[in-house]
Specification:
alpha/beta; two-stranded antiparallel ribbon; 8 helices; binds ligand JD2
């Protein structure tokens, strides 16, 4: 997978050289390049922003540098993190993980001139996404989150691919609690069922825990959980 990131803060992406993403880059599974938007400015001050038409607070990112940057690195699938974007989901990560070339546009200030998105959409797929209902300073942190969600789905990145099928959000429920040694810690014991060696009983316990957690914390996921996977006894109203 080829990924181009365009930003005015390239140093924000140091974390993408670490851990499993760093290994994916080193092994060639992920070809990632971070570009400084100011590369495509032409004035002595390398200006990337200006005042908003119609007035209002803050500054808006100018279209000219963005247009030239996207001309240079595109075409591909353009992902624009934004407070007004579609909520980013595991399904989005799975869909994006199957693509060959992603381009991330990291906005700052009050956002990117809308004509940049409209112009790009005329020649490549564009996805405006939001991480959640809160406001960040810019798109960089969102790109790091989205890149983790996508990269862990790339074949060969995670040693144990089984973990991808059972994890939260992939199966439609929250994961059950996890435990490791010691069996007793500060007078708190690991549930006996997990030490029973009875894999069928363990699987049923984990599913029950997942259903309880999801019902308590994410009624929205519970409501969307496929009815075929639940008999009446399972569904907690
Ligand atoms: N994804 C995501 C985001 C963002 C986000 C993403 C990109 C930009 C570019 C500028 N700003 C600041 C800003 C402040 C006020 C109005 C508009 N924009 C961003 C914020 N905030 N919250 C999310 N879940």
């Amino acid at each position: 997978m080829r990924v181009d990131v365009i930003t005015i803060f390239p140093d924000y992406f140091g974390p993408l050289s670490l851990s499993l993403i760093g290994k994916a880059r080193g092994s060639g599974l992920l070809d990632l390049e971070v570009h400084d938007l100011r590369t495509w400015t032409s004035d002595v001050h390398r200006t990337v922003d200006d005042t908003p038409y119609g007035g209002g607070p803050g500054m808006v990112m100018r279209p000219e540098p963005w247009g030239q940057a996207l001309d240079a690195v595109g075409p591909g699938t353009l992902i624009v993190p934004s407070p007004v974007g579609k909520p980013f989901t595991q399904a989005d990560a799975q869909a994006l993980a199957s693509l060959d070339h992603l381009i991330f546009a990291c906005g700052r200030y009050e956002g990117i001139d809308q004509r940049v998105i409209d112009d790009a959409a005329a020649r490549m797929p564009v996805l405006e996404v939001s991480l959640g209902d809160y406001v960040l300073f810019g798109g960089e942190v969102a790109v790091i989150v989205i890149m983790e969600a996508i990269t862990r789905l790339l074949p060969g990145v995670l040693g144990n691919a089984d973990s991808l099928t059972e994890e939260s959000h992939a199966a439609g429920l929250l994961e059950a609690p996890v435990y490791t040694k010691p069996a007793s810690w500060r007078d708190r014991d690991v549930p006996d069922v997990l030490r029973s060696g009875d894999h069928g009983r363990i699987a049923r316990w984990r599913r029950d825990q997942s259903l309880l957690r999801t019902a308590a914390r994410r009624p929205d996921m519970m409501a969307a959980y496929p009815p075929s996977s639940l008999d009446k006894a399972d569904r907690k109203t």
